[in-house]
Write a structure and sequence with these properties.
The chain is α/β, with parallel strands linked by helices. It has two domains: 216 residues, UDP-n-acetylglucosamine1-carboxyvinyl-transferase, Chain, CATH 3.65.10; 204 residues, Enolpyruvate transferase domain (UDP-n-acetylglucosamine1-carboxyvinyl-transferase, Chain, Alpha-beta prism). 29% of the residues lie in helices and 29% in strands. The chain contains twelve helices and 24 strands. Strands 18, 19, 20, 21 and 22 form a five-stranded mixed β-sheet that branches. Strands 2-15-17-16 form a four-stranded mixed β-sheet. β21 and β22 form a beta hairpin. α7 packs parallel to α9 and α7 packs parallel to α11. The longest helix is centred in the middle third of the chain and has 13 residues. It is globular, with a radius of gyration of 21 Å. It starts with a strand and ends with a helix. The structure holds shikimate-3-phosphate. Shikimate-3-phosphate binds next to α5.
């Protein structure tokens, strides 16, 4: 689908409620499936990725029913049953990597498959630690499909070179069904939703700095209320800052400190951003974010900040085109392993629109501020985050742009356009 986007001189104004967090929606289904009893998930995401997780767990024997459009009731015995067919993870890396940790210790075999993009993404990062725990996984050169031969696993102490919440969660979930203490240490803190939600559901889990340890635990069914996704809010934060005459409030945004790097960056860039009505919901920090059109200055983003904003980097690159000076983003090589090679695709598409952006092996340098010309067709490379970032640039280009493959927004944010329409 081609989406045409043009300049928005009147600005963005008003209030929107951001839809449910994708990372939390996946985890809520997975952990409820491992709990014996009935769990209630409020504000479950309607994105295709969390739905892939839900469908997969139905194939593993759980019962799931919607009480209303956003409330999901999951009933499980806490034990999974052997699937009759391959388990399709669709486009979702979180599904494949986390579920591998759960399936590796079951008393049945299973096959995890994915779409074309997911089948190209690296799985060695989870196969390696799981193999150290005694898991038996067959693949072609560490790519999906993954054939998982359920086995009894043993605990490990693992020091990871990657700050990846998917790898961390995979190992912790395997450790949950293993006798002894499984420890996982990461180089920088990645999102800690798994730790928070497992603790909330009664697991024996402890965090000590960069190390998390877990022992065999039974999970209790719970009511889990999922907050809005800061990664989805990021497009509105960016648009509110760069579109002239804007003043918007984005309600119910998850502000977990391991995910809120974009807030830190906007403050460094001198953006007009305020957090209102902060509270804690199901163990997670939540608040409303108000942004107004701002004069921005460049900043440097690297090291431990990267995992806190990894999914927001393409839209931060858009912000940087409107900031005075050179914005440097480094230490983000793993962006090349996302739904698209987000370093190459962001650089290529922003250059087409007139941005002054240079590709680095592990990030980019953006020379701002530039007037973006637009007037061309751009590609999404089947990547939802690129599609949404390009929409934001479209709002400030001199001439209309056409975004090819815009339907990929449905992976995480089916109501993306509707939310923007409310503010125009
Ligand atoms: C996610 C972790 C991140 C992120 C992804 C969701 C999660 O991936 O990019 O969109 O829910 O755990 P990595 O763990 O590979 O960095």
């Amino acid at each position: 689908m081609i989406k045409k986007v043009s300049k928005c001189p009147e600005g963005l104004n008003g209030e929107i409620t951001i839809p449910s967090d994708k990372s939390l929606s996946h985890r809520a289904v997975m952990f409820s499936a491992l709990a014996n009893g009935t769990s209630v998930i409020k504000n479950f995401s309607s994105g295709q990725d969390p739905l892939s997780t839900l469908n997969l767990f139905k194939q593993l024997g759980i019962n799931a029913e919607y009480k209303d459009s956003e409330t999901l009731i999951i009933t499980s015995s806490g034990k999974l049953s052997a699937p009759k067919t391959n388990l399709d993870c669709g486009n979702s890396g979180t599904t494949m990597r986390l579920v591998s940790g759960i399936l590796a210790s079951q008393n049945f075999n299973s096959v995890l498959s994915g779409d074309e993009s997911l089948s190209k993404r690296p799985m060695k990062r989870i196969i390696e630690p799981l193999a150290l725990m005694g898991a038996k996984i067959e693949s072609t050169e560490n790519h999906a499909p993954l054939k998982i031969f359920g086995s009894k696993l043993h605990p490990i102490s693992y020091i990871s070179k990657l700050a990846s919440a998917q790898v961390k969660s995979c190992v912790l979930l395997a450790g949950l069904n293993t006798d002894g203490i499984t420890c996982y240490t990461e180089p920088y803190l990645s999102r800690n939703h798994t730790e928070i939600m497992l603790k909330y559901m009664g697991a024996n889990i402890r965090t000590d700095g960069l190390t998390v340890s877990v022992t065999k635990s039974s999970l209790e069914p719970k009511e889990i209320t999922i907050c809005g996704d800061i990664s989805s809010a990021a497009y509105f934060i960016a648009a509110g800052l760069v579109v002239p005459n804007s003043d918007i409030i984005i309600k119910n945004v998850g502000l977990n400190p391991t995910r809120n790097g974009i807030i830190e960056v906007v403050k460094q860039m001198g953006g007009n951003l305020e957090i209102l009505d902060e509270k804690t919901v199901s163990g997670e920090q939540v608040g409303d974010v108000r942004v107004k059109s701002s004069e921005l200055k460049s900043c440097k983003i690297s090291g431990e900040l990267i995992p806190k904003l990894i999914d927001e980097i393409p839209v931060i690159a858009v912000l940087a085109t409107q900031a005075d000076g050179d914005t440097i983003i480094k230490d983000a090589k793993d962006l090349r392993n996302k739904e698209s090679d987000r370093i190459a695709t962001t650089v290529k598409e922003l250059q087409k629109l007139g941005a002054n952006i240079e590709e680095l092996d592990d990030g980019f340098i953006i020379h701002g501020k530039t007037t973006l010309t637009g007037g061309v067709e751009v590609e999404t490379y089947n990547d939802h985050r690129l599609a949404m970032s390009l929409f934001v640039v479209g709002l400030i280009c001199e001439k209309e742009i056409a975004i090819n493959g815009f339907e990929w927004v449905n992976i995480s944010f089916p109501t993306f356009e509707e939310c923007f329409d409310k503010l125009m």
